[in-house]
Amino acid sequence: MKKIIFYSYLKCSTCRKAEKWLKSKDFEFQLIDIVKEPPLVKYLNLALKQYSDDKKKIFNTRGKAFKTLNLDFNGLSSEEIIQLLSRDGKLIKRPFLIYEGKKVILGFNEIQYAKQFI
Q1: Rounded to an integer, what distance in angstroms lies between the CA atom of residue 43 and that of residue 103?
Q2: Whole domain around residue 71: which residue ranges?
Q3: What is the share, in percent, of the chain residues with pLDDT greater than 70?
Q4: What Cα–Cα distance (Å) separates residue 22 from each residue in 5, 40, 44?
Q5: How many structural domains compose the chain?
Q6: What is the reported pLDDT for 71?
Q7: What is the DSSP string of 34-62?
Q8: CA 81 – CA 85 distance, rounded (Å)
Q9: SS3 73
Q10: What digits encode the pLDDT tens for the residues 38-84?
Q11: Cα distances (angstroms) measured from residue 53 to each of 6, 47, 61, 67
Q12: Strands 4-8 and 103-106
């Protein structure tokens, strides 16, 4: 069985769509509330490495928490980004999935999910 860790926000409609899709395909996953328990630092580091070309993709840029920060991504170190994200799960793009402990999948796109999981 392939291991999926699913960081979600209960009020997020995109998270609910992703969860529904995974269930419809009979995937088992560990569901974690991203606000109560942001992703582990090792997973945030994995996301930073995977999205090193555009670190902004890891952030929930449409959320209030992000908009109030007025961040300069070019001036932030990886450590500073990790600190921000680990303190506030609402800053993180969601859903935030960890697949097999080796790959981060951000957001929900049915075609992308099908390519990744099937």
Answers
A1: 9
A2: 4-117
A3: 99
A4: 12, 22, 22
A5: 1
A6: 81
A7: TTTSPPPHHHHHHHHHHTTT-GGGGB-TT
A8: 6
A9: helix
A10: 999 999 999 999 998 888 899 999 999 898 988 877 788 999 999 99
A11: 24, 11, 16, 21
A12: unpaired
Where do we find the tokens 């998270």? 15
Which helix (H) or strand (E) segment holds residue 33: the answer is: strand 30-33
Report the interhelical angle of 110-117 vs 13-24 (nearest 10°).
Answer: 40
Q: Could you tell me the two tokens for 37?
A: 């328990």
Q: If you search the block for the tokens 């995937």, which residue do you land on? A: 27
List, in order, residues 6 or more apart from 68 with CB less than 8 Å away: none
| This prediction's pTM | 0.91
| Residue 84 belongs to domain with CATH number | 3.40.30.10
Total residue length of the chain: 118
- Are 84 and 65 a contacting pair, CB within 8 Å? no
